[in-house]
Design a protein that fits this description.
5 strands; 5-stranded mixed beta sheet; 36% helix; alpha+beta
Amino acid sequence: MRVNVTVNGEPKQADDVWEGESLLFLLRERLGLPGSKNACEQGECGSCTVYLDDTPVCSCLVAAGQVQDREVRTVEGLAEGDRLDPVQEAFVEAGAVQCGFCTPGLVVAAHDLLGRVPRPSDPEIREALAGNLCRCTGYEKILDAVRLAAARKADTEGATR
């Protein structure tokens, strides 16, 4: 089957897609977007989290055929050109990127959280990231990164008002 999908704002087309193929495989292997990671393939670890029509999903659990004429935003699509998203910057600055395997999913989950809750409490951050596993167990740096991104976004939004 042919799949037409908008990925990170650009229309994309993939041919000869098997109906049971995952969105994760489509993104990584057919469209050349390796940001989303393939870890558990069961929706348990969150490493493959992407936005599908502005809702975070585990791309390993979404069939490629389900994204026909829909919009996908990956971790690569959060940056604007060469400028990282504030959440991406905060992960780098806080040292929250360890082996890096879980990072794309955590960044998308944190990005979604801050879009819904500009100043999240620690329990809200933990709840939002509960579906993302870090095997390096560096959760404190990850929490620091989300707090830093939230503070910077609040400062930026306060300055523009």
